[in-house]
């Protein structure tokens, strides 16, 4: 009599399960072939395969990362009142989420941008992933919408603009300046520099902008991590929920602490709202409240996101939008 293992199957049956499963799932053999090889009926093979899955001898993992969910996207689009939404499967790893969302945004730009447009790009790790995956583009001019934070050249907004411009053959207008400086006078002086001033003058001509979304509560923002504790606490107390291109907004979509922008090299709040098309690329359920806030602020007309954030957005009240149309 055969011994019985902890899963309730005999050792002989477990060996048959493994053999049948390997031949069926790995070698792609038919049940009839396996039955002949093992000297059992094909019905026995079917039971062995079923038991192999039930007892954990065989586990199946579906790799769906990058797969789009059109039906879910349509629900989110209607819920948020946006022009378009794209939702991709991206898993749980933050780097993978940024990569898949960035790749989806790159694909969308490749199929929708038209020659002669002015493309404005903010900064962030998702946009870095987007720029690395960018397909060939029609000839568009590309301008940087914010100064830079940090010293990582690969994630610099200057590098993002350079990569995208190379894919289009258009002109690149980088912003060789920090995003945040110590005081408004320094910011004003930098804005008068010829290269900086040339970029700032292009902001009124931007037809499509692509932005990332920073969440301040819960915290998931590169900008949030770069400012001092006292200033961070004061801004949070003032009601900052989200940030786009260093524009700080509250849950109800109002600009918070406009004095902070006086120290920033960035596009203005009303300038951003006046852009006909603003594509926000963001992933992760923790950014749901932040995305809702920027929608209310009129800083997003389209969204590229992952399934986790899409489902979290559907659990929130539908944000009212009063975005002025050009």
From TrEMBL:
Gene3D superfamilies reported in the protein's UniProt record: 3.40.50.1360, Winged helix-like DNA-binding domain superfamily/Winged helix DNA-binding domain
Sugar-binding domain mapped to chain residues: 72-315
Name the record gives this protein: DNA-binding transcriptional regulator LsrR (DeoR family)
GO molecular function terms attached to this record: DNA binding
Family matches, as PANTHER family: TRANSCRIPTIONAL REGULATOR LSRR, TRANSCRIPTIONAL REGULATOR-RELATED
Keywords: DNA-binding, Transcription, Transcription regulation
Phylogenetic lineage: Bacteria, Bacillati, Actinomycetota, Actinomycetes, Micrococcales
Family classification: Belongs to the SorC transcriptional regulatory family.
Pfam families attached to this UniProt entry: Sugar-bind (PF04198)
Organism in which the protein naturally occurs: Cellulomonas iranensis
Keyword Acetylation assigned: no
């Amino acid at each position: 009599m055969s011994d019985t293992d902890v899963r309730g199957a005999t050792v002989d049956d477990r060996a048959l399960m493994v053999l049948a499963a390997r031949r069926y799932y790995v070698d792609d053999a038919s049940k009839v072939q396996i039955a002949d090889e093992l000297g059992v009926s094909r019905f026995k093979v079917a039971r062995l395969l079923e038991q192999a899955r039930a007892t954990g001898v065989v586990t199946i993992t579906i790799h769906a990362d990058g797969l789009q969910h059109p039906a879910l996207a349509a629900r989110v689009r209607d819920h948020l009142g946006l022009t378009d939404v794209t939702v991709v499967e991206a898993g749980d790893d933050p780097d993978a989420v940024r990569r898949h969302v960035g790749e989806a945004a790159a694909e969308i730009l490749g199929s929708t941008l038209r020659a002669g447009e002015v493309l404005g790009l903010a900064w962030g790790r998702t946009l870095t992933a987007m720029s690395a995956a960018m397909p060939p583009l029609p000839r568009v001019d590309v301008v940087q919408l914010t100064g830079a934070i940090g010293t990582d050249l690969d994630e610099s907004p200057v590098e993002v603009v350079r990569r995208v411009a190379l894919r289009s053959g258009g002109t690149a207008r980088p912003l060789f300046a920090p995003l945040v400086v110590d005081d408004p006078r320094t910011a004003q002086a930098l804005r008068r520099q010829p290269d900086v001033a040339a970029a700032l003058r292009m902001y009124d001509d931007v037809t499509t902008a692509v932005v990332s979304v920073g969440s301040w509560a819960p915290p998931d923002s590169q900008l949030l991590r770069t400012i001092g504790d006292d200033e961070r606490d004061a801004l949070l107390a003032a009601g900052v929920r989200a940030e786009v291109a260093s524009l700080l907004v509250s849950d109800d979509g109002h600009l918070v602490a406009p004095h902070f922008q006086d120290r920033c090299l960035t596009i203005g709040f009303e300038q951003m709202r006046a852009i006909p098309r603003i594509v926000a690329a963001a992933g992760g359920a923790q950014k749901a409240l932040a995305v809702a806030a920027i929608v209310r602020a009129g800083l997003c007309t389209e969204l590229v996101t992952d399934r986790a954030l899409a489902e979290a957005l559907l659990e929130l009240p539908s944000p009212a939008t009063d975005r002025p149309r050009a």
